C-alpha cells in the first residue's frame, strides 16, 4: 500500500484525539504516521500524553515533542492507535510483525478503546496467513519451542515454528525475549489456540489480539473503510 494511504488511515485516527486524552502509541510503519500527525497537532497546542509501545516509537514520539508517560504513572488510557499484520471481520488481530506485541498488548488492554489503522491487504477471511508471533523467554528455548510446535500442530499449523532472526542473530524484543513465528496457513480456532499457547511455561505472550479492538480504519484506493466490533 502506498504511504499516502497509510497516512490517510492515520489521519482518521488522529481526528479521534481530544484534549487531555491519555494515548497508547502503536508501533510499525502505519502507526508511525499516526505519531507524526499527532506531533503536528501537539505543536499546534494539543495537550495529550502517550505511552509508547516500543523503544522505536518512544524515540519518534520524543522527537515529535509528544509528552510521554508510563503505565505506572497512568495505568488507564483512553485510546490506543496501532497497526496490525492481519485481522478478520470480527476485528481479531494478528500483531507482532515488528516484534512489539507484548508491550502493544499490555497497552491495548489498558485502553478504553483500541483503533487499528491498516491497509486493505491486511484484511483476511480467516486468520493465519501471516505467521503468528509468539514471544518466549530465552531460558529453555528448545523445550518451549517443542511445546509451541506441539500446540501448533494440534491446531492445524501447516508450516513450521521458526526462531525469528535479525541479520545473523536471534531477534531480541524490547523486553529481552525471543520470538517464535508459527506458519499456520489458517487458524481455525483462534481462542482455543491462544489459551493453549499461554498455558505453556516459557511463553510470555502471543500475537493474537482477541476482544481488544473496537474499530479499524482501513485504507483502500477508494477511501477509508471503517469496521467496528461492538463486542470488544
Ligand atoms: O504489530 C506490529 C508491530 O509489532 C505492527 O503493528 C504490525 O507489524 C503492522 O506494521 P505495519 O503498519 O508496518 O504494517
Automatic annotation (TrEMBL):
It catalyses: aldehydo-D-ribose 5-phosphate = D-ribulose 5-phosphate. It comes from the Bacteria. Pathway: Carbohydrate degradation; pentose phosphate pathway; D-ribose 5-phosphate from D-ribulose 5-phosphate (non-oxidative stage): step 1/1. One of its GO terms (molecular function) is ribose-5-phosphate isomerase activity. Its EC number is 5.3.1.6. The keyword Plastid does not apply. The active site is at residue 104. The keyword Isomerase applies. One of its GO terms (biological process) is pentose-phosphate shunt, non-oxidative branch. InterPro entries: NagB/RpiA_transferase-like, Ribose-5P_isomerase, Ribose5P_isomerase_typA_subgr, Ribose5P_isomerase_type_A. Substrate binds at residues 27-30, 82-85, 95-98, 122. Keywords: Isomerase. Homodimer. NCBIfam families: PRK00702.1 (NF001924), rpiA (TIGR00021). Belongs to the ribose 5-phosphate isomerase family. This is Ribose-5-phosphate isomerase A. It comes from Pseudochelatococcus contaminans.
Amino acid at each position: 500500500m502506498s504511504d499516502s494511504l497509510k497516512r490517510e488511515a492515520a489521519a482518521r485516527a488522529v481526528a479521534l484525539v481530544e484534549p487531555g486524552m491519555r494515548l497508547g502509541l502503536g508501533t510499525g510503519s502505519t502507526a508511525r504516521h499516526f505519531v507524526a500527525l499527532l506531533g503536528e497537532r501537539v505543536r499546534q497546542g494539543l495537550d495529550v500524553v502517550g505511552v509508547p509501545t516500543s523503544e522505536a516509537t518512544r524515540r519518534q514520539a520524543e522527537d515529535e515533542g509528544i509528552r510521554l508517560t508510563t503505565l505506572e504513572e497512568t495505568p488507564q488510557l483512553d485510546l490506543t492507535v496501532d497497526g496490525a499484520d492481519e485481522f478478520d471481520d470480527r476485528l481479531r488481530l494478528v500483531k507482532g510483525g515488528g516484534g512489539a506485541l507484548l508491550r502493544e498488548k499490555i497497552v491495548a488492554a489498558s485502553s478504553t478503546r483500541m483503533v487499528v489503522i491498516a491497509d486493505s491487504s491486511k484484511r483476511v477471511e480467516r486468520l493465519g496467513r501471516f505467521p503468528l508471533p509468539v514471544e518466549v523467554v530465552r531460558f529453555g528455548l528448545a523445550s518451549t519451542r517443542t511445546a509451541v510446535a506441539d500446540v501448533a500442530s494440534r491446531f492445524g499449523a501447516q508450516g513450521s515454528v521458526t526462531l525469528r532472526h535479525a541479520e545473523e542473530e536471534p531477534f531480541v524484543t524490547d523486553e529481552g525475549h525471543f520470538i517464535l513465528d508459527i506458519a499456520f496457513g489458517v487458524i481455525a480456532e483462534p481462542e482455543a489456540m491462544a489459551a493453549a499457547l499461554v498455558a505453556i511455561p516459557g511463553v510470555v505472550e502471543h500475537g493474537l489480539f482477541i476482544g481488544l479492538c473496537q474499530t479499524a480504519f482501513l485504507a483502500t484506493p477508494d477511501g477509508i473503510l471503517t469496521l467496528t466490533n461492538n463486542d470488544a
